[in-house]
Amino acid sequence: MNLDIPDPVVSRRTVLRSAAGAGALAALAVTASTAAPATAAPGRTAIVIGTGFGGSVAALRLGEAGFTTTVFERGRRWPIRPDGNTFATFSSPDKRAAWFDNRAGANSATAIPVEPYPGVLDHVEGNGIEAVYGAGVGGGSLVFGSFTPVPRRQDFEHIFPAAANYSELLSTYYPRAKRTLGVSPMPADILKHPNYVGPRSWLEVIARYGATPHFFDFAIDWDIVRAEMAGRKRPSVIIGELSYGVNSGAKKSTDRTYLAAAERTGNVTIKPMHEVFDIRPRPRSAGFVVTARVRDEQGRTIRTVTAEADHLFMAAGSFHTTRMLVEARAKGTLPQLSPRIGNGFGTNGDFLTIRTNPSDDFGLVQGGPGYARIYEDRLSETPMSMVYQATPLPAPLGKAGTTHLVQTHTDERGTVDFDHSTRTAKLNYPYPEGSNDVDRQAAAFVGKFHQRTEARYGRPANGVPIYTRAVGFGSAGTYHGLGGVVMGEAASMDGAVRGYDNLYVVDGSFVPGAVGLVNPALTITALAERTMDRFLGNH
Ligand SMILES: Cc1cc2nc3c(=O)[nH]c(=O)nc-3n(C[C@H](O)[C@H](O)[C@H](O)COP(=O)(O)OP(=O)(O)OC[C@H]3O[C@@H](n4cnc5c(N)ncnc54)[C@H](O)[C@@H]3O)c2cc1C
């Protein structure tokens, strides 16, 4: 199959963009030369590793403040193509959905064979958990479901140390993050469309259960969704297609918000297809030397690039940031890092279930992204939440089942540990199916939900929850891996990584394993905004 995918490494567009940010290139001393850039002011150079939510915030705020900044990203750029063929689709998955893997799919249980390619979804196979991350310029924002909820105070404070200061986030940093991401609630006219019978039915199911719906924002351009409805854009959001990327362009990923603004400052250069593999202190002055391999679409290393800067911001996502630091500590390139790095990996309490054969009509297809969360505070277990997310099944299978993410509080945490035999860091999450808090609590909740919404009306065969790990459900995997360089432990509350000056963490690894019964991207963004405020206040 000829996908006619633009060359991510040296496309004309990339070259032009790079030229626009030529000043920022000064931060990059190419191929093993680590001489200080001549044009950058002393103390005013920075490197950011990764372009997800945290890296995007760091890039913009550094660029605005005049720091000459190089951003390394292992994946390619994904500019939206006018022909609507930027990303793979659920009905026809292909290599664009997988990060250098020979299988592509939303989870490993349902994946299909593909040739290796720098696609958008990276499946990290841990011991006891599969953690899925985005890859590409925009990181997880390319693949995320676009849910951007704010956690309730009591759930946030259940997890975070008091110094994380929910009130400050609520007054300053959540609003700033929302504004810059451009998020908004689902408009009424969208909700009325025939593809959105699912969200409307979900409200009825919630009422039957006896709960209150909590509405939240999405990082979606609703005008483009309207264009999908009118047939002017390729159907994407309106058929629930979000986690391989949105072909219509309706998703507001950070390459189109924060990162675009960062590049416009003229101080920030993004280097796609640059995978960092070595970090060490600069020998003669404060700062770091970072080495990346530049890869082609087949995964071959074309060359290596070495850069140095006064400040280093880790934003490679919770697993890869932690992995790089654990490996640097073990291999002796950053030996003074805190022994706590690698601790506190959590799954955000995620538990995925499908309600099969619901009695309510969820439509022939389910328009996305999803809708309304409920909280259940009355069970003896612990507070939990449940949200409806559109299931991208082709018509008429939309009626066959609805997918729900349940989130619970749990103290269960995994680790990222150095494996001396392979000399790489591995994710360990030793909580087998059926014998862990998340499974026990969430199974009780979805069982009660089935009882109250279907069985008590004499419909025991409707809305039956399925959550076996055998098909990638339950707690088999997480899209919300968090922790590893946790605030107040391996890092200070201001994001400084303990053991080295001028080293910061701005991504999900900073979060103590969960954000509090909601999806984490907005909270990661808000915390990164706060970290950058603190940093710039001191510099
Ligand atoms: C399918 C899916 C759906 C999701 N839906 C939602 C949702 O609806 N709402 C929500 O809140 N959250 C959602 N999430 C989770 C959300 O995407 C993540 O929590 C968020 O992206 C994490 O942000 P981050 O800043 O920690 O880093 P990430 O977004 O993970 O970005 C890290 C970046 O670093 C790059 N990188 C990694 N290693 C290297 C290296 N060695 N060198 C250079 N670059 C590197 C990666 O390619 C990536 O671009 C979803 C996740 C997935 C996978």
TrEMBL record:
Residues 412-528 form the Glucose-methanol-choline oxidoreductase C-terminal domain. Its EC number is 1.1.3.6, 5.3.3.1. The keyword Isomerase applies. Keywords: Cholesterol metabolism, FAD, Flavoprotein, Isomerase, Lipid metabolism, Oxidoreductase, Signal, Steroid metabolism, Sterol metabolism. The keyword Isomerase applies. InterPro entries: Cholesterol_Oxidase, FAD/NAD-bd_sf, GMC_OxRtase_C, TAT_signal. Transmembrane segments: none annotated. Its cofactor is FAD. Residues 1-40 form the signal peptide. Gene3D superfamilies: Cholesterol Oxidase, domain 2, FAD/NAD(P)-binding domain. Pfam families: GMC_oxred_C. Pathway: Steroid metabolism; cholesterol degradation. PANTHER family: CHOLESTEROL OXIDASE, FAD-DEPENDENT OXIDOREDUCTASE 2 FAD BINDING DOMAIN-CONTAINING PROTEIN. Belongs to the GMC oxidoreductase family. This is Cholesterol oxidase. It comes from Gordonia westfalica.
